[in-house]
Write a structure and sequence with these properties.
The complex is a heterotrimer.
Chain A: H1 3-9, H2 12-34, H3 44-47, E1 54-61, E2 66-69, E3 71-75, E4 78-83, E5 86-91, E6 95-103, H4 114-150, H5 152-167, H6 170-180, H7 185-211, H8 215-222, H9 227-263, H10 275-282, H11 290-319
Antiparallel strand pairs in A: 1-2, 1-6, 3-4, 4-5
Helix pairs in contact in A: 2-4, 2-11, 4-5, 4-7, 4-9, 5-7, 7-9, 8-9, 9-10, 9-11, 10-11
Chain B: H1 11-16, H2 18-47, H3 63-72, H4 79-91, H5 105-139, H6 145-159, H7 162-176, H8 188-192, H9 195-233, H10 236-243, H11 248-260, H12 262-277, H13 280-285, H14 291-301, H15 304-332
Helix pairs in contact in B: 2-15, 5-6, 5-9, 5-12, 5-15, 6-9, 7-9, 9-11, 10-11, 12-15, 14-15
Chain C: E1 2-4, H1 20-27, E2 34-36, E3 47-49, E4 52-57, E5 63-68, H2 82-93, E6 108-115, E7 118-123, H3 130-135, H4 142-145, E8 168-174, E9 178-183, E10 197-202, H5 206-214, E11 220-221, H6 229-234, E12 238-253, H7 263-272, H8 275-283, E13 287-289, H9 312-321, E14 334-335, E15 338-339, E16 341-347, H10 351-366, E17 370-376, H11 378-387, E18 392-398, H12 406-409, H13 427-438, H14 442-459, E19 462-475, E20 478-479, E21 496-497
Parallel strand pairs in C: 1-10, 1-11, 16-17, 16-18
Antiparallel strand pairs in C: 2-3, 4-5, 5-7, 6-7, 8-9, 9-10, 11-19, 12-18, 12-19, 13-19, 14-15, 20-21
The chains are: A mainly alpha, B mainly alpha, C alpha+beta.
Chain lengths: 320, 338, 499
Amino acid sequence: MSLSATFGDASPRLRAGLLVMLALSAAAILGPLASQDPNRITDPPEAGLLPPGSMRSVVRLRTGATLAGQQLRFEHDSLVLLRLGVTETVTVSNVERVDSVRFWLGTDALGRDVLARLLCGGRVTLAIGLTSLLLALGVGTCLGLAAGWRGGLLDGVLMRLVDALLAVPVLFLLIIIAALFRPSLTALVLLLALTAWTGVARLVRGQVLTLKEREFVLAARAIGASPSRIAATHLVPNLLTPLAQDAALRLADLVLAEAALSFLGLGVQPPLASWGGMVAQAEAQVFHAWWLAVLPGAAITLTVVGAAVTADGLAEMGRS
Amino acid sequence: MRQGGGADGGSGARRHNPLLAFALRRLGSGALLLLLVATATFALVSFAPGDIASRLSDPRIPPAARERWRQHFGLDRPWPERYGEWLGAAVRGDFGTSWLHHRGVGAVLGEAVPRTLLLTSVGLLLELAGGIALALSQIRRPHGTADRTITVVTLAAYAMPTFVVALGLVYLFSFRLGLFPASHLLSPEGEMATGWRRVADLLHHLVLPAVAVGVAGAGAVARYVRGSLLDERTQGYIVAARARGCSQWRATLVHALPNSLLPLITMVGLSIPFLVSGSLVVEVVFAWPGMGLAMYNAALARDVPMLMGGTVVATVAVVVGNLVADIAYAAADPRIRL
Amino acid sequence: MVGIVQDVTTFNEYQWSGDSYELQIIGLMFPSLMVEQPDYSLHPPSFAPSLASAWEFSQDNSVVTFHLRQDARWSDGTPVTAEDVRFTYLVQKDPRISSPGLEIKDFITDVEVIDRFTAKFHFSRVYPYQLMDANDGHVIPAHAWGKVPLEKWESTDFEPILVTSGPFRLASHSRGQTLVLERDPDWWGSPRPNLDRVVLRVIPDVSSQLNQLLSGDLHLLELIPPREAGRVRAHPDLELIAQPGLLWGFIGWNNRDPVFADRRVRRAMSLAINRTALVDTAYHGFAKVANGPILSSMWAYNKAIQPLPFDPEQARRLLAEAGWRDSDADGVLDRGGRALEFDLLYPSSNPIRHDIAVLAQADLARVGVACRPTQVEFTSLLARQESGDFQATVTAWSEATKIDLTSAWTTPSATQGSNNFMAYSNPEVDRLIAAAREESDHTRAKVILDRIQEILVDDQPVTFLYEAQQLTAISRRVGGADINPLSVFFNVQDWYLTP
């Protein structure tokens, strides 16, 4: 089946899912080029915690500091700015540039543009989330297949390892890792995959245990098919539905876990934005600046919905 | 050619009672796991930067006090030595005194575990009931509007950070509507009361946190059940049942649903450790101090006896949870041998 | 109804201390010899009578005799006597009780029981804080707690054998949930409390605390986050009390680090950071820029010191003088092939310090310094500070009303341990601090302290950032409350509740 045929045959569900994912990816890749600097701090007392759609005149001084105001007018050789309810006068010679900025999705406590941070954060979050998800799926599926199919000692050892990882206070493992390694994105992806593969492995093993007693597998074994052939032709296709459904949820777990990791000093470090980090920082302000928690939360949800719908579409194709 | 999972070595016992033999074998390996996890945890805690004395960082407190604390708790000695002492006492059932609470670890856990169990088990029940109900309503007309809407809503519930869900529930049902209390196990009046009034007060307080615990999971349950139900419907036995004139609804409920719940068993088994260890976020938001909060505080304070006690409880829960899940799996699907 | 973040872990302050909120609650139930007055802005604190109705110094000032009230009783009816005072002292000094206060009693050689209601404190030296050190720690019941062997002290739960003697006593305690204190009708002090009960509710989550405050469930809440202060102030039923507190924050530079060992570099950092803007942003105006090592609200503060201005130009010049130039034109200064970059650590649980780290990073970037804000789990951060494994860290200290700069600013000794984790070392400062500590007269000590402050501001071992205000919200239904930085319950006996 060629790629075009795949798309041609794709159900509306799959198409919708893919569309969402493509749009998100495009926004994440191209968005940061078009938006303003996500780390630019704009006069927090005046321009901090602005609700979505707010507009401010921003005066950049030669010292590098910025002043924001609700109104701006020119008078002879100076600018008169309405800032914090008071008029302030700035001599033009001290001014580097003047902009009128609309913050479409508001600002955070430091007067940074939420839209720019969302776009930039999306790039980081999607890259980290998807990479670690693929890694966890790969490792988890292989080990789960092996454990479920072979059984015996291999199964025992692998599953006890999974149990041990569930029981050990992971927090401490992470605290130690944080103390030993400099935070880097590679380390972050590996760590996230490390926390996620156990769930995948258990799921796959459980499925394999059921599948290998099913008629078609028993039949294949009876005619002497090799384990790898059985795995490829019978097991993996039947695993696709539960795996795909699991994967979408796991993506959500990973995106949120990234935020938790940065709390331990392992994740994305400020001022770099990530969706998980934005949500986590919004916690203390959720009641008076709802957009700080809700917008990145909505972005995560949209991603998860997109991934889930894609997964469902793929599963549907597998069934038909 | 039978290669059933773990069939080796049990043939003698199998003749008497395969289930019992299986359980005993698993408990044996569980004990080994416990030892492994305890050792690893003790080592991890010892290697982690900082100890309980690090918290005395206030300049008002003389620095010599830190060193005195370290000596007092034996932190100046090598960890294998301290671990040996802990293990020796632990096998006799003595888990020591919490450094933070000045009470026996058993007593502190004895308070925290029931609180957490109450919250998480009710949460899990809500999660399962809600998830299955949602899946059934979705499956009535797959790919219909209701199905799609519920899919998106459940995914959103799952992807929303717990604190947003929890604070949202508090805001809506407590501050806006005034239906349920915003926090705590009991109201100050309820703490004075006894008997049914106390229980009623407790249940009233339980509603919001239990829903907060269950919301995300219900989304996951609904997804799994919906997916397996769709799969099952194409299976021969359902088609056959339908051909016999069995109604679609009856075929789904009576024939497909039990089989669709199989993957859920793994999920529930996996959540048994969670039943004991609790959700930190929900416990913090609702001032419901259970295991999550106790272990978090112990981790921050590097309260070694508490951490070890909590880890033992969590490991036992993992072992028991797996055992129960495997047995339930076998009971639900006769094709699986233990 | 009062909101608290965390339950008390013990009612016996000699098991654990360091958490001042815990001491405030213990203070409602246990007596102290005297009550420290919030007058530290004028002179070393003075004291008002409490359990001790009077006291006098000996001729040479080396002995203080305390005369106890004869009507003071423990909650089980036993009189509070000089034996209790001596027992308390013995517990404080016992190395088996790892009370962090042991060193506070360093200069008290003995507490002598003269009769049932008279105790003599013997001092090994004469200094301005004799009364403060004698008074430190609440008096505990010898007859009830003396039965616990001292080696078992640490692992004993004192709640079942709780015997109190304060305006309030424990009515019920549901762990991690609610602490109900009720008026003790037999309390001997005056005035008698008006309030029947003080209910302390444990609410760990800050958002939940605020919601319950704003919805009227709580009458008193301490430690309001500055960003929420506006909402509290706007509420018609609540009063926001904002007053100079004891907490001050700074960026600690590791003086062992080859980069920050250079005084010019440290000064350049302080000059490059717009501290006024930083304080206004992170604290929403509820803090002021800190200038030196002594709080500006203290009597010993040197009003003449010149704080460093915000002057990026001068910062660039100083860095250039120290040899830091942007030779590869990448926007970051370098010297000998090494870029001027470092991790700025801050505790991950603290949103205010997150803002500070990010703002400092932006300011420093403008003078060509690459600083990477790095979150670290709180206890790990403290451990890294203690072991010197850091370059720069955003941290804060809660200052005592007793002015002693020894542990924070003298050269750390290898054996003793020190709070000077920055490893700042200046022999002249060491000498002056020792001299100030020896000085028995506080006006003469002030002269030395003034000089120390000048040197420390000059050396900038840390970048002094802010003195935070203490924000307390109290319901307008509560009358008569005089809340001060020493204790929120300072005059709790006078409080009353209007309907």
